[in-house]
Design goal:
Strand order of the largest sheet: 3-2-1-4-5-9-6
Strand content: 15-25%
CATH class of one domain: Alpha Beta
Shape: globular
Distance between the termini: 23 Å
CATH topology of one domain: Rossmann fold
CATH architecture of one domain: 3-Layer(aba) Sandwich
Order of helices and strands: HHEHEHEEHEHHEEHHHEE
Structural class: alpha/beta
Helix content: 40-55%
Largest sheet: 7 strands, mixed
Mean pLDDT: 86
CATH superfamily of one domain: Vaccinia Virus protein VP39
Low-confidence stretches: 4-13, 263-271
Oligomer: single chain
Length: 274
Amino acid sequence: MTVDPVAAGGFAAAAPTYARARPTYARAAIGRIVELARSTPAGTSAEVLDVAAGTGILTGQLTRARLRCAAVEPLGEMAAQLRRALPSVPCVRGTVEALPVRAGGTDVVTVAQAFHWFDAPAALAEVRRVLRPGGVLVLAWNVRDPSVPWVAALDDLVEQHSGGRPYSHHDERRWSDTIGAAGGFDTVVEERFDNPVATTVDGVCDRIRSISFVAVMSPARQDALVEDARHLLADHGLDGAVEYPHHTVLDWARVLHRSPVRDASSPPDGTPAR
């Protein structure tokens, strides 16, 4: 399976930090995903496939909301964190461009904080293939609020130390255009939910270390970045407890049709498709 080398190296190295430091998604956004799942023809029996599930942050929230969930994650280090946290959730290794799931195997596909790493046309073709008629694709994002001065300054500091992000930020892309260009989906709806994250200065620094392109930096460069971040936060009067302003953004669309089944053998043993 092929994964972007920055994503693979960074997330493999930072998996425990990622599990500890990354915020959960807004409760109202989770409620919206539950509504979308129950709006499919399967109703309360809807099955959710969380793709590029990482350490299982969204998977866990959806499971606790009583949705039937399974997970696909390409990186062994991240999948190990998910299995440790959610031992009852089926989880297999795989990429979104070649999902180890049978055609029409699920009602909802969720992708949290990961779609910007994908080969979008191939990924969307696979999502269409595995969704049942009336199924829904949901992209979920926890987005920092750059209108807050210290948040914008911290983002700039991270980019200065790292040389810049190797991907577009959520607000720099129109996912409706990306999904619309692929065909096979209804109109994309974007919804935004307040999600202030209660944390600490140490938590903000852990959050920085969990960023993929920071995690691949040398330990010395990471330490220098974190030291500068601590000074920046102190200069903005932040010490101890911190409210880190975020929004959870959902971009969702209902599938109009399924793609033809690709020529492949049945999914391997352990596939999360029920």
